[in-house]
Design a protein that fits this description.
The chain has 4 helices and 26 strands. It is rod-shaped, with a radius of gyration of 47 Å. The longest helix has 19 residues, at 11-29. Strands 3, 4, 5, 7, 10, 12, 14, 17 and 19 form a 9-stranded antiparallel beta sheet that branches. It has helices at residues 11-29, 32-39, 216-221, 313-320, and strands at residues 56-61, 64-66, 70-78, 81-103, 107-108, 110-114, 122-134, 138-142, 145-150, 159-161, 171-177, 187-205, 207-214, 222-233, 241-246, 249-255, 262-267, 275-283, 286-301, 306-311, 326-332, 339-345, 348-354, 358-362, 370-378, 382-391. With 392 residues, the chain is mostly beta strands. The chain folds into 3 domains: 48-69 and 303-391, Jelly Rolls (Sandwich); 86-203, Sandwich (Jelly Rolls), CATH 2.60.120.1200; 214-300.
Length: 392
């Protein structure tokens, strides 16, 4: 708003001047008692008291330290994780040697019995043996189901046994040889040594979860979250990858590196919810301990000072008519340091950037009748010793 100049000579102004002169003469001629009654202000009329020469103080505050944001870091320690997913091999000798044959006149089959109480932990079961002599096709059955019928070669060994044919108890591995066919005097024979089962187990605790709570107040102020951890590899020769999920959403997938120091992962606050949240960790192979797990929440909340003052109707009209000004005065506790902030007066922005000890800002153009406010949005950390709004 462009403030105009005080009015220059005009008939109205001359009239006011003559009226004022008449009032002065009238008061001079009044008796003393009547003169005191006229000169005493009535109730409700604004006065400035002893500091009339300096103006009427509408607001006086000591804000102290102001800063751009209130920052806080909340740390949550999570329990260590022991994650592993690997395969173990266990050989078991069924018999040291055996012979099986088939001729036109006779057949000799061999049956080897065994139990598998750990069946549901198996990922693979194979049979391995040494062929000292072999003629014809070797036929292998497990629990009556044929799974191999061929001339044995080194490339075939070990021979895998289908897991779906197996039981936890009383499994029967049957070994026999194919018929010599039209050669009625011939015999197909296999001499086998060290017949064994090779069990392969999947040992795993591949996925674990850790829960944490985010309150409603924290969620509103949450700027960023950092998950940090240290990886200790227990099976260096078998390394895999680590996948991390936040509330079911994959937020990280990376190859694991032993002795790489602390790993930091930034989590998106938008993937979190008010209340209980779940972090899940999953490995595909290897064995690891994830320790020193810490979840740091960085909270930022605006806490900008806001101060109020009032202008009575006649005060506001005087400001509008440029008879008085409204000044915002700031006093700082140091000299030479930068004090930068945005001062908002009734929604209007005024930019402060000074290294002086004091600042004086004319806010006459921004005031309104009734309640007014001043809000400070600092760009730097600094101390305001005194803040005043003065009508002068």
């Amino acid at each position: 708003m462009k403030r105009g100049k005080r009015g220059e000579g005009s008939p109205v102004a001359n009239f006011i001047l003559m009226f004022a002169l008449f009032v002065v003469v009238y008061i001079i001629l009044l008796p003393p008692a009547s003169k005191e009654s006229v000169l005493t202000p009535g109730p409700g009329y604004p006065t400035t008291g002893p500091d009339s020469a300096e103006g009427r103080v509408l607001l006086s505050e000591s804000p102290g330290l102001v800063r751009p944001y209130l920052k806080e870091v909340l740390s949550q320690k999570l329990a260590p994780l022991n994650l592993f997913s690997y395969t173990e091999t266990e050989p078991r000798i069924l018999v040291r040697s055996l012979t099986t044959y088939t001729s036109f006149f006779s057949t000799k089959k061999e049956e080897l019995k065994f139990d598998l109480p750990e069946l549901y932990q198996l990922t693979q079961l194979s049979t391995l043996f040494l062929v000292q002599e072999g003629k014809g096709r070797l036929i292998l059955k497990i629990n009556g189901q044929e799974f191999y019928n061929d001339i044995v070669s080194t490339a075939d060994l070990p021979i895998e046994i289908p897991l779906n044919y197996l039981k936890t108890k009383d499994n029967v591995l049957e070994l026999s040889v194919s018929s010599p066919g039209a050669n009625i005097f011939g015999t197909n024979t296999y001499y086998l040594k060290d017949i064994q089962l090779i069990k392969r187990f999947s040992v795993q605790n591949a996925r674990e979860a850790r829960n944490f709570i985010v309150t409603e107040g924290e969620y509103k102020s949450l700027a960023r979250s950092i998950l940090s951890y240290f990886v200790n590899c227990l099976r260096v020769r078998e390394l895999g990858s680590l996948n991390i999920y936040l509330n079911g959403k994959e937020v990280s997938s990376r190859f694991l590196v032993c002795d790489a120091g602390h790993v930091e992962l930034e989590l998106n606050p938008d993937d979190m919810v008010v209340g209980e949240n779940k972090l899940e960790f999953e490995v595909d192979s290897g064995q690891y301990v994830l320790e020193q797990l810490v979840l740091d929440h960085e909270l930022e909340s605006e806490d900008y000072p806001k101060y109020f003052f009032s202008l009575q109707t006649w005060e506001y009209l005087d400001v509008q008519d440029v008879y008085t000004n409204v000044d915002l005065e700031l006093e700082f506790d140091d000299f030479g340091y930068r004090k930068a902030a945005t001062m908002i007066v009734n929604g209007e922005r005024i930019y402060l950037d000074t290294q002086d000890r004091r600042a004086l800002i004319d806010i006459s153009d921004f005031v309104i009748e009734g309640e007014n406010f001043v809000k400070i949005i600092p760009n730097e950390h600094f101390d305001i010793v005194n803040l005043q709004v003065v009508l002068r």
